[in-house]
Design brief:
This protein is an alpha/beta fold. The chain has helices at residues 2-7, 10-13, 60-70, 83-94, 111-118, 136-142, 165-174, 228-237, 245-256, 260-280, 303-312, 337-351, and strands at 77-80, 101-106, 122-127, 147-153, 178-182, 204-209, 222-225, 285-288, 295-300, 318-319, 329-333. It has a 7-stranded mixed sheet with strand order 1-7-6-5-4-2-3, with helices on both faces. The chain has a 4-stranded antiparallel sheet with strand order 8-9-11-10, covered by helices on one side. The radius of gyration is 22 Å and the shape is globular. Bound molecules: pyridoxal-5'-phosphate.
Length: 352
Amino acid sequence: MEQIEQLVRKNIRELKPYTSARAQFLDNALTLLDANENPWGSIGMVENQVLNRYPDPYQRAVKEKLAETKHFPVSGIFLGNGSDEIIDLLIRIFCEPGQDKIITTDPTYGMYKVSAAINDISVEEVLLDQGFKLSGDKFLVGSAPSTKLAFICSPNNPTGNLMDKAEVLKIIQRFPGIVVIDEAYIEFADDPGFVEYCSQYPNLVVMQTFSKAWGMAGIRLGIAYTSKVIVQYMNKVKPPYNVNQLTQKQALTSMEDAHEISMLVAKVKNGRDWLKKELSVLNKVEEVYPSDANFLLVKVSDAVSIFNSLVEQQIIVRDRSRVSLCEGCLRITVGTEEENQRLIDALKLIET
Ligand SMILES: Cc1ncc(COP(=O)(O)O)c(C=O)c1O
C-alpha cells in the first residue's frame, strides 16, 4: 500500500477533495436544503422521472450490486463516466505532467495515448510480436523508472486477440508501477480475465464497461476493479457527480436482467463465426484474424477504396490501415444477422 502511495503525484496525495453535499444525505424524505437544488421538481420529465436531486456521488447501490455479482469487495470498485474517464483519472493521479510516462502496446486502443497527450505525458509503445502477441520481457525492458502506468488491452482493440495470461502476469508481478488491464471486450472471450487477481496485486486495475456486452454504450458507465487505496485516490480526483442519476438507475435495472448477457454474447459469437466464414471466401479479403471480441480485423486488398465503397453503400466500418501491424486492415464490428448480411452483399458488389 505504501508503495502505491509513493507512486501518487505529490499534489494529489496532499489534495483536499471537494466535499459533495449528497455524499452523506441521500434520502429524499429528508428536508434537503443543502445543495441548492430545485425543490419543485424537474421540467420536461421523461416517463415522469423526477431528477431535481444530485445523484449519489459514490453510486453505492450500483457498486453493491456489482460487488455481489462479481464476489468482489465493494471498497475496491470505482465507477466512471465510461472507461475513458477512468483512463484519464489514472493518468492524472499517477503521472506528473511533462515528466512521467505511460507504457502500452502498439497497436492498441487509442485513448491511452490521447489521454496521455492531453495531460502532457509521453507514451512508450511496445510493438506486439507476430500474431499480435505480447512479450512481457520486451514490455518490461521498455519501461523507464519514470513510467508510472502500464496499459494492456485484452482482448486488444483493434487486433481482437486476448493477451497471453502468463505474459500479462509477468508484467503485473514485475512492473514497478500501476498495471491497468482494459477488459472492455472480456465477455466475448472464453476467459475469466484478471479481476480475480486484484486481491493479490494492489497495483492492478482491471477496467470493464457497460458499453459492449451489456449493450449500454449510451449510458456511459465504466468499471474499475482494484485495491481500496487506488479507489480512494480516484474518488478524490473525480468530478463530484461523475455518474448521473439516469445512468445509475439504468445500470441497476440492467443488472436485474444480467442473465440475458450470455444470450446476447452468444448471438454476437454466432455472428462473428458466420461473418468470418463469409469474409474468408471473398477475393478481396486476404486474412480474417482470430477474434476474442465483438469485431473482426480483416486484411483486404485495398482498405481505403473498400472503405469508401462501403460508405457509398451506407455501411460504416473502421479503417485501421494506417495502424502499426494492421496495414491494409479494416476493423468490422459484428452486427445483427441482417447487418452482417448487408455487409457481405455490399462487399460482393464491390468484387464484381
Ligand atoms: C479497449 C477499449 N477500452 C475502452 C473503451 C471505451 O469504453 P467506454 O465506453 O466505457 O468509455 C473502448 C471503446 O471502444 C475500447 O475499445
